Amino acid sequence: MASSRVKKSTIVRAKFVRTGFGLLERVAPALGGRLALRIWCTPRHARPSAAPQPGVRHLVPLHGSTVLAETWGSGGPVVYLVHGWGGHRNQLGRFVAPLVAAGYQVVAFDALSHGESGPGTLGRRATLPEFADALTAVVAEFGPAHGIVAHSMGATATALAVLDGLSATRLAFIAPMADPMAQTHLFARFLGFGDRVHRAFIARLEKVAGRAMSSFDIPSRATGQTLPPLLVVHDERDREVGHVNGEALASAWPDAKLVSTNGLGHHRILTDADVLHEVVTFVTAPTPAVPC
């Protein structure tokens, strides 16, 4: 009975929001764009879970705030774990033990406005460039990235950082978003606004991000570049970030392999034993020597 009441309440709120945005589309698109930006930049936080094994905690300064990082192992090449939008560092915790056992140091962190990290420049809201900046700051703190394993929007942020100059030997993206601009149109349909609010929303988003939306189109930017080898793992039934994103990214990246799963969705894919094995095997594989 309680579940039924919650479902009805959610439907009522959704109708109210869509009606409101429909009105703003007609009479106040600038206000609609401002409200859309607020919703877009506000993460829906996943409930934090405990790490499989506690690591050593560190605070890394960034933009006048702090990023909470956690490390496991020591002395070996470094592999970084990057959570997705609304996530936290322990979501990729299953990767820690096998990577440490293979001789790697593992570093995971909470992006600004996520988990135990401090707020970003927008308070408890966040932006994709801040995600990328957090990764870059953590790599500067703990050393060159042999590998980066990233999920969802964290994969997009990782790709953005790499395309902007961050060095890494191997990358593994799980359920990546290929182009956030395409996602903004799905967002518009979900909230019920049209082109006028969408234009105002994108203008504000670009101003906050400090760069054009075209710079986030990872497949377009990756085409023809010299980039590290990439493994893309994506579920064919992912309802949050469609499988087409993984296909597009793997097709455009110069040295990429796509592994498709079926039935794991957007989050269970992070705990699947076969996915874990595939990713760890790829990240720890010997790097071929470059001919002289």
Plain-language structure description:
By secondary structure, the chain is an alpha/beta fold. The protein is built from ten helices and eight strands. It has an eight-stranded mixed beta sheet, sandwiched between helices.
From the structure above, extract its key features.
TAP-like protein, 292 residues, 8-stranded mixed β-sheet, Rossmann fold, 10 helices, AB_hydrolase_1, 2 domains, 17% strand, globular, 42% helix, alpha/beta
Assigned CATH class of the largest domain: Alpha Beta
Radius of gyration: 19 Å
Counting H and I runs of at least 4 residues, what is the number of helices? 10
CATH architecture classification name of the largest domain: 3-Layer(aba) Sandwich
Quick gist of this model?
Residues 79-275 form the AB hydrolase-1 domain. With 292 residues, this protein is an alpha/beta fold. The chain is 42% helix and 17% strand.
Question: Secondary-structure map with pairings?
Answer:
Layout: H1 2-27, H2 29-40, E1 56-62, E2 65-72, E3 78-82, H3 96-101, E4 105-109, H4 128-142, E5 145-151, H5 153-163, E6 168-174, H6 180-191, H7 195-209, H8 218-222, E7 230-235, H9 243-252, E8 256-261, H10 273-283
Parallel strand pairs: 3-4, 3-5, 5-6, 6-7, 7-8
Antiparallel strand pairs: 1-2, 2-4
Helix pairs in contact: 1-2, 2-7, 4-5
Domain AB hydrolase-1: 79-275
GO molecular function: catalytic activity
Protein name: TAP-like protein
